[in-house]
Amino acid sequence: MKNTEFQKHNRRGFISTTAAASLAASTMVHSATAAKSELRPLRLAVIGCGGRGRGAVNDSLTINSGVTLVAAADLQLENCQRTFKDMSKTHPDKVDAKSTKLYSGLDGYKQVLNDPDIDVVLLTTSPGFRPLMVQAAVEAGKHVFAEKPVCIDAVGYRACLASHDLAQQNKTAIVTGTQYRRQVNYIAAIEQIRSGVIGEIVNITARYCTGGIWYRPRKEGMSDTEYQLTNWMHFIWLSGDQICEQAVHNIDTFNWVMGENPLSAYASGGRFTRPSDSEMWDSMSVAYEYPNSRTVSFMCRQIPGSQGLNDNVIYGTEGTCQIGASNSGSRIFDRQGKQIWEKEGRIKDAYREEHRALIESIRNETPIVELAQTANSSMVGVLGRVAAYTGKKVTWDFMTTQSTLDLFPKKLTWDGALPTKGFAVPGKTKPV
Ligand SMILES: NC(=O)c1ccc[n+]([C@@H]2O[C@H](COP(=O)([O-])OP(=O)(O)OC[C@H]3O[C@@H](n4cnc5c(N)ncnc54)[C@H](O)[C@@H]3O)[C@@H](O)[C@H]2O)c1
C-alpha cells in the first residue's frame, strides 16, 4: 500500500483520535448531545473470554451507562460463565442475567454475530482469528471493538482494509485496542511534536523489552489444535510472535508519530530461551526506513531475568521527546538536555476511554472506524518479523501488494492434526 493509501485509510483515524483526545483531556465531560443520546440502550457481547475479554467488558461497563452485557462466546463454556459471574458481581445492573446467551466451540462466535439483538461485539480472542471475525462482524452489521493486533499476515491485512471500507459504507463503528492512542501523555506529546517543538524528526528509538511470558504446557489427550489454541502465544499463526502480539503498541506509536508507513525493514534476532516446541523468537532488532531519510531503530525482547524497557524516544533537529509506556509519562528535552515539557498519563483511563469513545460515536451516529490505522501498525510488525525471519531486507510494497503470506490453517477442526511449522531460520525461511 502506498502512502496515499495510508492517508486515505488514516484520515478518519487521526480525526477521531484527536476528537477523543480533547474529550479525554477535559476529563470526559459529556456534551449535551451525548448525555441525551445515552438514553439509547446498547446490548454488548464478548467473543474471547480470557483475561483481556473480561478486562474489556469491565472497561466498557464501567465507563458507559445504558450498556448491558447479554452474550459471550469462547472455545470453553466455563470461560463464558466466568465472565458473566465476574461481571454480575461487579456490575449487577449491567448484566442481563435473564436472557444470558453463552456459546462455546470454534463456531460459537457465529451465533453471537447472527443474533439481531446484539449491537456491539468485543473481539478479544487470540490475534490469528481477528481478520475473519472482524469481517464477519462487519458483514453482520455489528459495531466492533477489536483487540490488537488486528492481523498477523498479508492476507489478514488486506481483509482488514476491506472490512474498514465496508464499515465506513455501512456506518458501523470499529474501535481497536491500541489504548495509547487515547492516553493523554501520548496525545499531548505528539501534538508538541506536530507543532515543531523538537524540529524535524530524524530517528525514533523504540523498545519493548520485558521478562518472560506465559507458556501453557500440553495436557494429556489434547489434540494439536486444542493445544495450539490454548498455548496460542507460541504459535505464529495465532500470535504473530512478540513483535506483532505485544510490541505492536510501540509500533503503533512510532507509525503515528511518523504519520505514514515505512518503506522497508532490515532485521536480526534469534531465540535462546523459548521452550523447544515454541515457534517464537525471543528477541528481534529491526531497522525501519521511512520516507525522507527518517529511520526507526526498534527492538523487542522477552527473556526471563533481563531488564525491561518500554518506550519511544523521538530525536528531532531541535530536541528529543521521550514517551514512556504504561504510566511513565512523556518528556521533552532541548538540544542541551534541559527538560522543557512533561505530561503524565494513566493507562487505566486510556483503556476505558476507548470504550467511551466507541459507544459515544455509535450513539452520536458518527461511528469511529479506525481498523485500517491499526492494520497498518500490525502490518509494520509483520514486515519486521518477515525481515528478521528471512534475513532479507523486505519492502512495505512487497508485503502489502505481492505477499501471499496466509498463516491461517486451511482446515481447522477441534480434534484435528496441526503439525507445527517450527521456528524460522534466516537464510532458509523465504519471504512469500
Ligand atoms: N490492549 C492490551 O493492552 C492487551 C492486553 C492483553 C491482551 N491483549 C490482546 O487481547 C487478546 C486476547 O489476549 P488474552 O490475554 O485475553 O488471552 P487469553 O488466552 O487470556 O484469552 C483468549 C480467549 O479467547 C478464546 N478464544 C480463542 N480462540 C477463540 C475462538 N476462535 N472463538 C472463541 N473464543 C476463542 C480462548 O478460549 C480464551 O479464553 C490478544 O489479541 C492480545 O494481544 C491486549
User: Total helix count?
Assistant: 15
Query: How much helicity do the residues have?
Result: 25-40%
Secondary-structure element sequence? HHEHEHEHEHEHEHEHHHHEEEEEEEHHEH
Q: What about the largest sheet?
A: 9 strands, mixed
- What is the spatial order of strands in the main beta sheet? 14-13-12-11-7-10-9-8-15
Uncertain regions spanning at least 5 consecutive residues = 1-8, 10-34
Percent of residues in β-strands: 15-25%
Mind telling me the CATH superfamily name of the largest domain?
NAD(P)-binding Rossmann-like Domain
| Distinct small molecules bound, one entry per kind | nicotinamide-adenine-dinucleotide
Molecular shape: globular
Q: How far is the N terminus from the C terminus?
A: 17 Å
Q: Could you tell me the number of beta strands?
A: 15
Q: Structural class of the secondary elements?
A: alpha/beta
Question: How much is the radius of gyration in Å?
Answer: 21 Å
Instruction: Report mean pLDDT, rounded to a whole number.
Output: 92
CATH architecture heading of the largest domain: 3-Layer(aba) Sandwich
**CATH class division of the largest domain:** Alpha Beta
Provide the domain count.
2
Question: Could you walk me through the main structural features you see in this protein, from its secondary elements to its overall organization?
Answer:
The chain is an alpha/beta fold. The chain folds into two domains: 3-181 and 350-370, NAD(P)-binding Rossmann-like Domain (Rossmann fold), CATH 3.40.50.720; 184-345 and 379-402, Dihydrodipicolinate Reductase, domain 2 (2-Layer Sandwich). Helices cover 40% and strands 21% of the residues. The protein is built from 15 helices and 15 strands. It has helices at 3-25, 32-37, 51-63, 77-90, 108-113, 130-139, 154-170, 184-194, 224-230, 236-239, 241-245, 248-258, 347-363, 371-390, 396-402; strands at residues 42-47, 67-74, 101-104, 120-123, 143-146, 174-176, 201-210, 264-270, 283-290, 294-302, 309-316, 319-324, 330-334, 339-343, 394-395. The chain has a nine-stranded mixed sheet with strand order 14-13-12-11-7-10-9-8-15. Strand 13 (330-334) and strand 14 (339-343) form a beta hairpin. Helix 1 crosses helix 14 (371-390), helix 6 runs parallel beside helix 7 (154-170) and helix 12 crosses helix 14. It is globular. The chain starts with a helix and ends in a 30-residue tail after the last helix. The structure holds nicotinamide-adenine-dinucleotide. Nicotinamide-adenine-dinucleotide (NAD) is lined by residues 47-53, 73-76, 79, 106, 108-109, 124-127, 129, 147-148, 177, 179, 229, 245.
